[in-house]
């Protein structure tokens, strides 16, 4: 059974930091691109950050560029999202996803596996 399990969410004050982790089990995702998405209440799921399976290409939404950093450790089958300078508008459920695509997609439909999500709440 393939599983992606996010952790690290929580409540933080504006300006603070959180580090999300996404651990994969059931298969090796070392050749999969990984992405982080988020969904706020009443809004569509949106792309946050993505990383190529090699780790040498990373992409970010404009809204998080300069504040968030995506990374991966293929040996641990884990991808991370370091979130700094958090804002109230970053409040959402954050999901990690894995894609067989050889490129990093920003579209949720391109991803084949999803985690259950972790809540991030930023108080202003």
Shape: globular
Q: Portion of residues in helices?
A: under 10%
| Overall pLDDT metric | 94
**Quaternary state, please?**
single chain
- Report how far apart the termini are: 40 Å
Count the E strands: 11
Radius of gyration: 13 Å
Which percent range describes the beta-strand content? over 45%
The unreliable regions are none
Structure write-up:
With 124 residues, the protein is mainly β. The protein is 0% helix and 49% strand. The chain is built from no helices and eleven strands. It has strands at residues 3-7, 10-13, 18-25, 33-39, 46-51, 58-60, 68-73, 78-83, 92-99, 113-114, 118-123. The strands form two sheets. Strands 2, 4, 5, 6, 9, 10 and 11 form a seven-stranded mixed beta sheet that branches. The protein has a four-stranded antiparallel beta sheet with strand order 1-3-8-7, with no helix packed on it. A hairpin with a 6-residue loop joins strand 4 (33-39) and strand 5.
């Amino acid at each position: 059974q393939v599983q992606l399990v996010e952790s690290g969410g929580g409540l933080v004050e504006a300006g603070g930091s959180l580090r999300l982790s996404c651990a994969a089990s059931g298969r090796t995702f070392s050749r999969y691109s990984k992405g982080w998405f988020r969904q706020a209440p009443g809004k569509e799921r949106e792309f946050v950050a993505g990383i190529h399976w090699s780790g040498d290409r990373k992409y970010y939404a404009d809204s998080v560029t300069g504040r968030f950093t995506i990374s991966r450790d293929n040996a641990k089958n884990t991808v991370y999202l370091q979130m700094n300078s958090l804002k109230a508008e970053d409040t959402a459920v954050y999901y990690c996803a894995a894609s067989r695509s050889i490129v990093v997609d920003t579209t949720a439909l391109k991803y084949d596996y999803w985690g259950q999500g972790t809540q991030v709440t930023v108080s202003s």
